[in-house]
Design a protein that fits this description.
This protein is mainly β. Helix content is about 10%, strand content about 45%.
Length: about 375
């Protein structure tokens, strides 16, 4: 009798465990089947209108935004955004949407000049917003992302009595400066068998005249020479520019411009699984074969302006745990950026604590001093 009771109890416990496991797996699968926002892709700016309530002597603004959504986005879905002022709901508008399979993403942009001018405001200060997805076929409406931005204004570069109220509006992105990214992109020919190494960071000012350098154990890597000339030279360019829609007065720091700069290193690979031999210029540098501590240094306008230290793990792994812990939703991994010099002008060095990713700051992140 006792053996029968023990067997029955054990069977019941096993059944209960299996049920819990199945429920957990089902819940996990359900979560993975839902669209998510790539947090580092969300960019919200202020679009300045050259009029306000019929007067061309007073300027106003409306929001403009762009972002990426990880699939799946089911058929019949519609992305849209809502913005709220301290006085209550303000504007609501749709964003172009297409059906997207799981494992792929959809990039969209919306707002700006597509918002009727009579919706413009003169308000400056904190503004709340949400990115949502509705599907009237399925009878669903869900919130994918909520955020808060800080809007400011600066006088335009126009002068004269009629220019007194011609202000240009902007969203402050100082929180971006201490946050950088390292990531791979697939090779144009070999794909993920030979991924290319990239690094990105933000500046406040004009995104020109960059010289990137990568060091491993104190020695610069990723450089190749052929007959006295450097081949596969690393380079940088802005891939996001959050500026103003109108020119502003020259005295405003960096003219309210922020830019994310991407640096590519053609001679540096994450790994090489193609089995091919070295090219005519010699073997490329493999991060997978050289794990350890790296440092990126940037010369901006011929002066040292950035230092980024990061670790490459076994087999070229880049994740330091920050990106995965914060579920950024993209292929990029967050790194700490040291700001050197004064080319960015005065900026809020504590903004990252509360304003990062529009009020969704990183956990486990502290920028270098």
């Amino acid at each position: 009798m006792r053996n029968k009771f023990e067997f029955t109890s054990a069977f019941a416990l096993l059944s209960l465990s299996l049920i819990c496991l199945l429920l957990s797996a089902g819940a996990s699968a359900a979560r993975q089947d839902q669209p998510t926002i790539q947090k580092d892709s969300v960019q919200v700016t202020a679009f300045t209108n050259g009029a306000y309530k019929g007067s061309y002597d007073t300027w106003s603004w409306v929001p403009r935004m762009e972002f990426r959504v990880n699939g799946p986005i089911p058929s019949g879905s519609q992305l849209y955004a809502e913005f709220t002022l301290p006085t209550g709901p303000w504007v609501k508008f749709d964003c172009q949407t297409e059906e997207t399979q799981a494992g792929r993403w959809w990039k969209t942009e919306c707002g700006g000049r597509d918002i009727p001018e009579d919706k413009s405001t003169l308000y400056t200060g904190p503004v709340n917003f949400a990115i949502k997805l509705r599907n009237e076929l399925a009878g669903s409406d869900s919130t994918l992302f909520t955020g808060k931005m800080k809007v400011g204004k600066v006088h335009s570069n126009e002068s004269g009595p009629k220019a007194v109220n011609k202000f240009v509006y902007y969203v402050n992105h100082d929180w971006n400066l201490p946050i950088g990214y390292v990531y791979y992109t697939p090779d144009d020919v070999s794909g993920w068998n030979r991924p290319r190494f990239n690094l990105a960071f933000w500046i406040r000012g004009e995104a020109v005249n960059f010289q990137p350098h990568l060091f491993y154990q104190g020695k610069e890597v990723g450089k190749m020479m052929y007959e006295g000339e450097e081949v596969g030279k690393a380079g940088c360019e802005a891939d996001i520019e959050n500026g103003t829609t109108h020119y502003v007065e020259d005295s405003f720091p960096q003219k309210a411009r922020w830019a994310r700069v991407r640096c590519s290193f053609p001679n540096v690979l994450g790994w090489d699984k193609t089995g091919e031999g070295p090219g005519m210029f010699g073997p490329l540098y493999l991060l997978s074969a050289n794990p350890g501590e790296y440092e990126f240094k940037l010369l901006w306008n011929n002066h040292l302006a950035r230092s980024i230290k990061f670790t490459v793990g076994p087999e070229g792994k880049l994740d330091n745990g920050i990106a995965s812990a914060n579920k950024l939703g993209s292929e990029r991994f967050s790194v700490r950026v040291q700001i050197i010099g004064d080319q960015d002008g005065p900026w809020d060095k504590t903004a990252w604590k509360t304003e990062a990713f529009y009020g969704n700051p990183l956990t486990g992140f502290t920028p270098p001093q």
